[in-house]
Design goal:
- With 368 residues, this protein is of the alpha/beta class.
- It is built from 11 helices and 12 strands.
- Helix 1 packs antiparallel against helix 2 and helix 6 runs parallel beside helix 7.
- The longest helix is centred in the N-terminal third of the chain and has 21 residues.
- The chain is elongated and about 60 Å long.
- The two termini are 43 Å apart.
- 45% of the residues are buried.
Length: 368
């Protein structure tokens, strides 16, 4: 792209000198040719098309599921708009099953939902897992803060015959997991790269501000972003900053902004980091930097409307929660009568000002 631009500038100068015409007259003549040259020589990241995600599954009341089953959920976090929707999907799935089977009182399927306040609090999640497994639930659903920190707990669950359904963010040793329900996080990163790259003219300097590196969903998002942004030959990723590799993420973000005074774009890999960056950008009066986040929280929806953020790649937490819980309940069926698909990935969607009010995208928008 830069080569084409340099060639165009040289051509403009030469024609101005040789023809004696004004710069404006020559520019008007060759502009269409310049545009074609730039387009022909342009490198392009892969566009990620939004595919139809799995629908909310119908409850098959013919399955011999276990009456009175207790489903324990240990989430990566228990607070925030995203996790509230995950929990709501799970609760609605439990209600739908109990209604479909006609379960009453002691027959009813029940669930508990626990997790640390902060997604980075690995130690608290491990302690919660220990306590939950000690109560011997029928099925355990979990979203791991760290890909391999809960290995011992998963092995204990297996030894005690407790099937584990992973959701949102998987673990390293997937042999200990019966099934996984989550977003295609590689696609999240690719989608962010495609839209960020196009918004800055397919050239310039960008940085990635990321949540903890030890989380599988975050690893996939960063890898997808780097892979796709690299297809824009004239975009340079200056740094990837992970929250669990610095003492204080706010200070780290401010340091990067001071270090690179001519940044063109920023990708933030989850809602917490995106909102932290938006706070800092407002405080520091950073302007002219294109921002792409993850998860259409109410704060990010406002930022998009105000032009502070060009868009966000969002998930369907309600559907994820519903699918996770129905999968967990299926896992209680006697014998091998339930055919459980091992991995189901929900497709993310690009949310910008053009689709915030489109009902088609309502399942991707979060609220307080």
């Amino acid at each position: 792209m830069r080569k084409a631009a340099v060639t165009a500038i040289s051509l403009l100068a030469a024609m101005t000198i040789l023809t004696g015409c004004s710069k404006d007259e020559v520019e008007e003549t060759i502009q269409p040719l310049v545009a074609d040259a730039i387009e022909d020589n342009d490198s392009e990241a892969e566009e990620v098309n939004e595919k139809e995600s799995p629908l909310i599954p119908e409850i098959d009341s013919s399955l011999p599921i276990q009456e009175g089953a207790r489903i324990a959920v240990v989430s990566k976090a228990a607070r925030g708009e995203y996790w509230k929707l995950v929990k709501k999907g799970m609760e609605d799935a439990v209600k739908a099953v109990n209604d479909a089977y006609g379960f009453k009182k002691d027959q009813e399927i029940t669930m508990t939902f626990e997790g640390p306040d902060d997604e980075t609090d690995v130690e608290s999640q491990i302690n919660i897992l220990d306590a939950v497994i000690a109560e011997n639930p029928t099925v355990l659903c979990m979203s791991a803060c760290d890909t391999d920190s809960c290995q011992a707990q998963l092995e204990t669950a297996k030894e005690n015959g407790i099937p584990v359904i992973s959701f949102d963010s998987n673990v390293e040793d997937t042999k200990l997991i019966k099934a996984y329900r989550g977003t295609d996080n590689t696609e999240v990163g690719k989608m962010a790269a495609y839209h960020l790259g196009r918004s800055i003219g397919k050239m310039g300097k960008v940085v990635v501000f990321s949540a903890q590196e030890k989380t599988k969903s975050i690893q996939d998002r960063v890898n997808g972003f780097l892979e796709n942004i690299g297809k824009y030959g004239d975009i340079e990723v200056k740094e990837v900053v992970y929250a669990d590799q610095v003492d204080d993420m706010e200070s780290a973000i401010k340091g990067v902004l001071e270090k690179y005074t001519a940044l063109d774009g920023v990708f933030c890999t989850n809602a917490d980091i995106t909102e932290l960056y938006l706070d800092i950008a407002e405080e520091e009066q950073e302007e002219g930097i294109a921002v792409v986040g993850v998860d259409a929280t109410s704060r990010q929806q406002k930022a998009i409307r105000n032009g502070e953020e060009i868009g966000t790649v969002s998930q369907q937490p309600y559907a994820m929660g519903y699918q996770t819980m129905w999968t967990a309940i299926q896992a209680t069926a006697s014998g091998k009568k339930a055919k459980i698909e091992r991995n189901v990935l929900l497709t993310p969607a690009w949310i910008d000002a053009d689709c915030l009010d489109d009902p088609q995208y309502s399942s991707y928008l979060y609220s307080e």
